[in-house]
Amino acid sequence: MDRGTHSSDELQEELETAEEHLSEAEEILWVTASNVGPDKYAIQLEEMTQRLWDLQHELDDLRQDIDDITR
Question: Where is this region: Disordered (predicted)?
Answer without folding.
Answer: 1-22
